[in-house]
Amino acid sequence: MDPKLDRDVADLWSTLFDIVTDGEKRLAIHFEAHQLTPPQFYVLKTLSENAGACRIGDIARHHHLTSATMTGLVKRLEAMNPPLVRSRRNQSDGRSVDVVLTAAGQDRFVAVQRGLMNQLRAVFGLLPDAERRDIIAKVRQYFTVFSQQFPL
């Protein structure tokens, strides 16, 4: 056993845990201010990243949810005033349902994203450029090594 390595692992775990739990709380507050739950935001994000439309089953798989759970999420997004998404039968496969981001959904996603980026900008702006680049490089390096060693 390497006591220094054990100490560093415990310190990193504690720091990562604090970052994740604090981030989850902050995100939940931010989403709530925009009348969204975290899963609803992630649906909007997925649609935005897929040119505004995606099969409901693909969204469910991407978020490790059942199609029934995703259907409920989509129905709640459709029921908002104004609707943030709409459903339609897939044109090439009538058994599939596509979820389409509405203009209101895109606007809501952009508003949430802008708010989150403004918070990050405010904090990151306090650091010199070299320190920001170093943090990004180290986090990327850690994530790359970790995901290679322990793939999902």
Description:
This protein has 152 residues and is mainly alpha-helical. The protein folds into two domains: 1-33; 37-149, Arc Repressor Mutant, subunit A (Orthogonal Bundle), CATH 1.10.10.10. Helix content is 70%, strand content 9%. The protein is built from six helices and three strands; from the N terminus they run ααβααββαα. The protein has a three-stranded antiparallel beta sheet with strand order 1-3-2. Strand 2 and strand 3 form a beta hairpin. Helix 3 crosses helix 4 (67-79). It is globular, with a radius of gyration of 19 Å. The mean pLDDT is 94.
How are the SSEs ordered, and which strands pair?
Layout: H1 3-33, H2 38-49, E1 53-55, H3 56-62, H4 67-79, E2 85-89, E3 97-101, H5 103-124, H6 129-149
Helix pairs in contact: 2-5, 3-4
Short description:
The chain has six helices and three strands, in the order H-H-E-H-H-E-E-H-H. With 152 residues, it is mostly helical.
Averaged pLDDT: 94
Run of helices and strands: HHEHHEEHH
Identify low-pLDDT runs. Answer: none
CATH architecture of the largest domain: Orthogonal Bundle
Rounded to the nearest angstrom, the distance between the terminal CA atoms is: 27 Å
Strand order of the largest sheet: 1-3-2
Number of strands: 3
* Highest CATH level, the class of the largest domain: Mainly Alpha
Structural class: mainly alpha
C-alpha Rg (nearest Å): 19 Å
CATH fold label of the largest domain? Arc Repressor Mutant, subunit A
- Estimate the global geometry from the Cα principal axes: globular
